[in-house]
Design brief:
By secondary structure, the protein is an alpha+beta fold. The protein contains 14 helices and 7 strands. A 5-stranded mixed β-sheet has the order 2-4-5-7-6.
């Protein structure tokens, strides 16, 4: 027996030969891409989580600094630690809540949460100022967080209002503290003023940067929307073009037999025609009618939805049956047909459909192979699929044919209908697999088909009988 081993199936690449497949692949990829709203919702959620983490970090750092500089600021009192602990716990719970809101936070919700956070931090900073009762209160650092949140989430006016509110609170506290603990020190007012300038610069600069990023993001969203619309339009146009090609192919294939039938019958109706010639014309019309019937049968097989009747079968039996069917035809052209497969490899398929697809591939291989030559079938399991390879020792498929070889009504053979490979690919697809040209070189042209694997339980139930 002759075994062809001319390429590595494990590294073969599928040659997508029907243009509509690219469109379907593009549409499938587009369906898997999250929508713009989901992108925005996830961005809002991550932004809120980032500010919660930032707040937790600042709270922990301030308590650590307060403890480290207790000789200057005094020991953190129990109320201060209690307030910080409650704030820390609330922020942590907010993070947990946000983690559970995947893709469900709208812009309105994000703004509401930001406003609540801003008010809460203002209250926290004021409360800690009263509890520590110092002119150089370290907890006013927290006021930088509302400014950043406003710059990220709101407009310029709201950001400026938050900056002014933060500055007003710091100056009010300085004024209040020295009203209770005179005399006032100008250095404290100077320090508060410097911090106010820093806060103002931070708020305005961050807002400008975020504003520019949002503009670029908006343009990106618009570009993605335009690209999505263009792809949808191209997909629709390709569908219409495919329908046009299909209709053109049907018309072309039907026109010739009908013309021959009409011409033959018209000639046979001529009273001056001899009996032998009339009989010949009738036979021509009958042959063309038979060819037309065969064409319509194949077209209906391609056009009707395939509903496979699945059953567990051994791949070895499928290959063996196919080889037995074509052996006589192959021998007439001095072509040897062989197969190799593990005896216990099983798949769950419609055996009649798969046999038809394999038979088509093998017959095409016999037509294409050199004489004398060889056809080799082999099968192996790859993950959850079984890959069946049909190889012949013929000339490589020309590039112009390779790009359209699976297209309905396209055939390089004068007597071909152009539906065999199209139907075979559909059979593979309804069984969860695919059909492609896996090798295309002189002396080794191979088609590969993948099909679903059956479970161990189903394999044990299969009887080893000839199909």
């Amino acid at each position: 027996m002759t075994n062809i081993r001319c390429f590595d199936h494990s590294q073969s690449l599928a040659v997508e030969a029907y243009p509509q497949d690219d469109v379907l692949l593009t549409m499938e990829m587009m369906r898997k891409i999250p929508s713009f709203e989901l992108f925005k919702a996830d961005a809002f959620r991550m932004q809120q989580i980032a500010f919660c983490v930032l707040t937790l970090f600042v709270l922990g750092l301030l308590l650590l600094l307060h403890t480290a500089f207790a000789f200057r600021l005094g020991e953190p009192t129990t109320p201060v630690i209690l307030v910080l602990g409650i704030s820390f716990s609330l922020k942590f719970l907010e993070i947990v809540w946000l983690q559970g809101q995947a893709n469900e936070i709208s812009e309105k919700t994000a703004r509401r949460e930001t406003a609540i956070s801003i008010v809460g931090i203002f209250i926290l900073a004021g409360l800690l100022a009263f509890l520590t009762d110092r002119d150089d209160n370290p907890y006013f650092v927290l006021l930088a967080i509302p400014i950043l949140e406003c710059a990220y989430q709101f407009g310029l006016a709201t950001t400026v209002l938050t900056i002014v509110s933060s500055i007003a609170m710091m100056f009010w506290w300085t004024q209040h503290f020295f009203a209770l603990h005179p005399p006032p020190r100008s250095t404290e007012y100077l320090e508060t003023g410097m911090i106010s300038i820093i806060y103002a610069l931070i708020g305005i600069l961050v807002w400008l940067l975020v504003h520019q990023l949002k503009q670029q993001q908006s343009r990106l969203y618009e570009s993605m929307a335009a690209l999505h619309a263009t792809r949808e339009q191209l997909a629709n146009e390709e569908k219409l073009a495919a329908v046009g090609r299909l209709a053109s192919g049907i018309a072309h294939e039907i026109r010739n037999p009908v013309a021959m039938i009409s011409s033959s019958l018209a000639t046979a109706a001529n009273s001056d025609l001899g009996e032998a010639d009339r009989e010949e014309m009738v036979q021509i019309a009958a042959r063309e009618a038979s060819r037309l019937e065969h064409l319509m049968t194949e077209f209906l097989n391609y056009a009707r939805p395939l509903a496979p009747q699945l059953s567990s079968v051994l791949v070895n039996d499928l290959l063996s049956y196919t080889v037995d069917v074509v052996k006589a035809h192959a021998a007439s052209r001095s072509i040897e047909v062989s197969y190799s497969c593990s005896e216990d490899l099983a798949i769950k398929v419609d055996s009649a459909q798969v046999q038809g697809a394999l038979l088509n591939l093998v017959l095409n291989g016999i037509d294409a192979a050199y004489s004398p030559g060889a056809i080799a079938l082999d099968a192996a399991q790859k993950d959850t699929l079984v890959q069946i390879n049909v190889q012949n020792t013929g000339e490589p498929i020309p590039d112009v044919d390779l790009q359209r070889i699976f297209e309905p009504f396209y055939s390089a053979k004068p007597s071909g209908t152009g539906l065999g490979l199209a139907i075979a690919r559909r059979v593979a697809e309804v069984h969860g697999g695919n059909l492609w040209v896996s090798s295309n070189q002189k002396g080794c042209v191979a088609f590969s088909m993948t099909l679903s694997v059956v479970s161990t339980e189903d394999r044990n139930e299969i009887s080893h009988k000839e199909l």
